């Protein structure tokens, strides 16, 4: 347990993380800064980086510790994509908009690589090895190919490669898929190490990061924000709210949670596998996911296979992890005897329009959230855009720009509705639709 009573997360990422090289510090007294950032995940840390580079005083506060939320629990896939497809963007908003969004997404991957290089975060183990999306039936395969061809021909994207069924089977060690599309520009990272390394580097540059410091109240005027926490008060000209799917944990940021539909992703990791078995699976050493509505993802790390999938927000349950294990064995029968050593889950910020939201909340606040499962890359670039917006610049936001705070109507019904939708999606997946 940490100082504020929040449980540690028993994830593989936490177990294999090296000892932190920076000191955990709580707010102890009142301070004044130019910009206060709430949330020490990728979004908040990227925002702090962008502000520090401009010579602007910034302080970061987090209710828990660096990377405690989604930034330390995700699968570590660094993807040049949004949940909404580029083809759908072009159809709904025009080709120029789709091209702008495509550029932002690929910039996200570049940003992760650049930050890891600049701060020498070797422990993040970033590899630009691609991501393979696997089709769970023939209809899904046809859709993948059509989308890849459209993206190549219309957006001049030469980073996509179609794999036939034999190629996918040979690479992943499973014959359950009908083919796939490789996104060569994607990568993988050890997610908690990335967050911690970025935080340590920022501290070395003089950025204060206050952990175990929940913000209980934010008072805003036109020219100032006052953040109240147990250890003191922070006064800032601007505040950036970077809590994403964890805004509900503190009263000060709870209304931002109403911009999203609450989903959760869970993951399991096997014991360390015998080298021959380990080497026979997922030979591309990249991230993998599949096309079911209730998507599963998988990858390798630390001599193990990791397997994850999305569920509905609620209490973590043994049933959920047992279902993941069944799906793992269904996909990889070779792992039927493999012991599961780690189980964990985390929240995912899903928005109605399947896109992140970045915008102003009054004169003194900026918010940035809702990555819909592609947060490693998108938060790293959009956090910097949030910083620019907070100080009066006009970054390229395209469809991610929110002109006003748009909470979901009847948000209290979102979780029951999500449960119904998830059950329906699971049924459609089961019958191959």
From TrEMBL:
**Which keywords, in A-to-Z order, does the entry hold?**
Oxidoreductase
Q: Which residues cross the membrane?
A: none
**Name the UniProt record assigns to this protein:** FAD dependent oxidoreductase
The residues covered by the FAD dependent oxidoreductase domain are 34-389
- CC annotations in GO: cytoplasm
The reply to whether Lyase figures as a keyword in the UniProt entry is no
Q: Which Pfam families match?
A: DAO
Which terms in the Gene Ontology molecular function aspect does this entry carry? oxidoreductase activity
What organism does the UniProt record list as the source?
Caballeronia hypogeia
The protein's matches in InterPro entries, at most eight in alphabetical order, are given as:
FAD-dep_OxRdtase (IPR006076), FAD/NAD-bd_sf (IPR036188)
